[in-house]
Amino acid sequence: MSLEITKVTARIGARVSGVDLTRPLTEAEVTGIREALNVHKALVFPAEGLDDTGQQAFARHFGALTTAHPTVGAVEGAPNVLPVDSERGRANHWHTDVTFVLNPPQASTLRSITIPPYGGETLIANAAAAYRDLPEPLRRFADTLWAEHTNDYDYAVPDEEIDAEKAAHRAQFTSITFRTAHPVVRVHPLTGERGLFVGGFAQRIVGLSVGESRKILDLLQSYVTRPENILRHRWAERELVLFDNRITQHYAIDNYDDLPRRLHRVTVAGDVPVGVEGKESYSIEGDAAHYTPVHTPADTPAHEPAAV
Fold this sequence. Notes:
Layout: E1 4-7, E2 14-17, H1 27-40, E3 42-46, H2 52-60, E4 82-85, E5 107-114, E6 122-126, H3 127-133, H4 136-143, E7 146-150, H5 164-173, E8 179-183, E9 185-187, E10 194-196, E11 202-205, H6 210-224, E12 230-233, E13 239-244, E14 248-252, E15 262-268, E16 282-285
Parallel strand pairs: 2-3
Antiparallel strand pairs: 1-2, 3-13, 4-15, 5-13, 5-15, 6-12, 6-14, 7-8, 7-11, 8-16, 9-10
Keywords: Dioxygenase, Iron, Metal-binding, Oxidoreductase
InterPro entries: AtsK-like (IPR051323), TauD-like_sf (IPR042098), TauD/TfdA-like (IPR003819)
Domain TauD/TfdA-like: 5-267
């Protein structure tokens, strides 16, 4: 196997070479990529010649796919592919993908389609490093907390800045309301690492008021977004980024004026999050069965580590 892994920063990110994503991967390559993802949290691949079909085939090496999104439409003819298009909105807020459902994706892939000549970087943060950065009393406190995640909340954008197209997109995004309680500290099912599982869809700490919750969530989030914990990926044409959605957050920087920017996203179905006491997340509102199966050990391909 000629797989080569080159670190990008000390705490997160690596470039992968020596693998052709346009063909089926060998068992050794899948194992090597999974191990690298466990260590580096986000991996960057050259993706010359890769199309939507190939991106889906690559993602399937790591488990069953979700559909494109619980409420937002897919690329025509490709129900597992979500167009991340600047014309449909800009995800310039820190988040982990689709945490408002019971079992968010375990991994996300993004492939560059149209890249602006400047700006448009994606930030990816290591939530395990953020947890380790917490002072011990704050870690013990965070271990006990649960947060309610929802897709239906105030996006903090003034109404006068919302045009008809953006309003329609927001209405589609919230056409089904989802609310799920997740542990604030999630235990990774493969590595056993603890990571802060918060981000933009976490709107309230269970048992606390909105005001109290906001102060605690902001404090914890400040550790996630420390510069030392962040990979700032400057996109090139024909690249694919794979990141571990169970223990990262990401942010698409809106710094490219009105230029077009388009990526395609394919996500791998995930397991139900588990907290430090072994308790699983629970759904409060909304059924996402149309969007994602639940990833279980029985779903794990034979060549993938069985510790999921």
